[in-house]
Amino acid sequence: MTDANSGLNRRDALALGLGAAGATGLAATAATFGFDMQALAQASKELQKRPIPHSGEMLPVVGIGTARIYDFPLTDSVRLAERAQVIKLMVQNGASLIDTAPSYGEAEIVLGKLFELTKLRDKIFLATKVSVDDRDEQMKSMRESLKDMGVKQVQLMQLHNPKKPEQDIDSIRAFQKEGLCKYIGISSSFDRDYKSVEAVLKREKPDFFQIDYSMVDRNAEERLIPAARDVGAAVLTNLPFRRGKVFAQVKGKTLPDWATKELGVTSWAQFALKWLLGNPGVTAVIPGTDKPKYLIDNIRAGKGPMPDAAMRKKMVEVFDA
Ligand SMILES: NC(=O)c1ccc[n+]([C@@H]2O[C@H](COP(=O)([O-])OP(=O)(O)OC[C@H]3O[C@@H](n4cnc5c(N)ncnc54)[C@H](OP(=O)(O)O)[C@@H]3O)[C@@H](O)[C@H]2O)c1
C-alpha cells in the first residue's frame, strides 16, 4: 500500500525507520541498504567539529552534497526512502550540513519532502545558493528556494559560481537582514573563474567559501584556501571525489597499511576525505552522498586522527604513484 501524501509504501516506511524503532529496526535498515552494523558502530564514534570563524559556531566536518543525485521526481519512492535514510543516519551520527542549489533540478523540492518525512529539518545546517545576476531575480530565486524546501530560513546562502570580479553579494546581505539566512557565502568549482572568485572573496569577506578541492584537483590550495583563511571564511570543499575520478585513479590499488594503522581509514573515500580535512584551512567536506553505506563510510573520515603536513605529503605520493 502506498501513502498518497508521501508516495512511500509500507516497505519504504519501514526502511526509513518511520515505523520500526530500536535495534531491530536498525538491523533491518542496515540489511535493506547494504551496510554492516559494525561499520555503523564505528561511524557512531564522535564526529569532529570545526568553528565557523565569524561566529565561533561549531560545524561537523563531514556533510553531504546533493547535486545530480537528489534530482528525481517525488513519485520515486525508492530513491526518496534511500535519501531519507541518509539524512536520518547523518543526524544520528552527529553530522548536519547539507549543500544544495536551485540549479540542481528537483533537489530542493526533494529535500523539502525529506524534511517533511524525517522531521529533521531543525537538526540540519542547510546551505543553498543563488546564481542569477540581476538583483531582483536573485531575491526571487532565494525566496523560491525557501518555498521549495518548505523552510522559513536557511543557515547559509551562497553566491553560486561568480564569474566577474566586480560581482557583489548585496542581495544576499539584504536577504540576511530579513532574517532569511544566517550566513553568507561564495561558491565556485571552475578553475577558469578563480581570479574573479578571489577578487569577490577578498572584497566581500563572506562567512563561508566553497571551492572544488580534491586529491586530483589541488589548485585551490595555492591561493584560494589561504585567501579564505585571511578573510575569516569557513571553507567547504565541493567535488571531493571529483565525481569518481579519485576512485578511478586508485582502482585496483590496496590501501596502504599505515593509513589504516595511523589514521584509521578503511576505504579510499575516507583516505581522500581525511586528506582534505588534514588541510587546516578546510572546515568541512560535502561529498555527494545518496547511499546509506556511503554516508557511513564518509562520516568515518571525520573521526579519529587527521593527517599532518608530512602525512598528507605521503598520502599524495601514494595516490599519484
Ligand atoms: N560550484 C559549486 O558550488 C559546486 C559545484 C559542484 C558541486 N558542488 C557541491 O559539492 C557536492 C559534492 O560534489 P559532487 O556530488 O558533484 O561530486 P563528488 O562528491 O566528488 O562525488 C560524488 C559521487 O561519489 C560517489 N561516492 C560518494 N561517496 C562514496 C563512497 N563513500 N565510496 C564510493 N563512492 C562514493 C557517488 O557516486 P556513485 O553513486 O556513482 O558511486 C557520488 O555521487 C555536490 O553534491 C554539491 O552539493 C558545488
Explain how this protein is built.
The chain has 321 residues and is of the alpha/beta class. The protein has a domain at 47-245 and 281-304: NADP-dependent oxidoreductase domain (TIM Barrel, Alpha-Beta Barrel), CATH 3.20.20.100. Helices cover 43% and strands 14% of the residues. It has 14 helices and ten strands. The chain has helices spanning 10-15, 22-33, 37-43, 77-92, 107-118, 135-149, 170-177, 194-204, 224-230, 245-249, 257-263, 268-277, 292-300, 309-320, and strands at 49-51, 58-60, 64-65, 97-99, 125-130, 154-160, 181-188, 208-212, 234-238, 284-285. The strands form two sheets. Strands 3-4-5-6-7-8-9-10 form an eight-stranded parallel sheet, covered by helices on one side. A two-stranded antiparallel sheet has the order 1-2. Helix 3 packs across helix 13 and helix 8 runs parallel beside helix 9 (224-230). The longest helix has 16 residues, at 77-92. The radius of gyration is 19 Å and the shape is globular. 45% of the residues are buried. Bound molecules: NADP nicotinamide-adenine-dinucleotide phosphate. Residues 65-67, 69, 99, 160-161, 187-189, 210, 238-244, 247, 269, 286-290, 294, 297-298 line the site of NADP nicotinamide-adenine-dinucleotide phosphate.
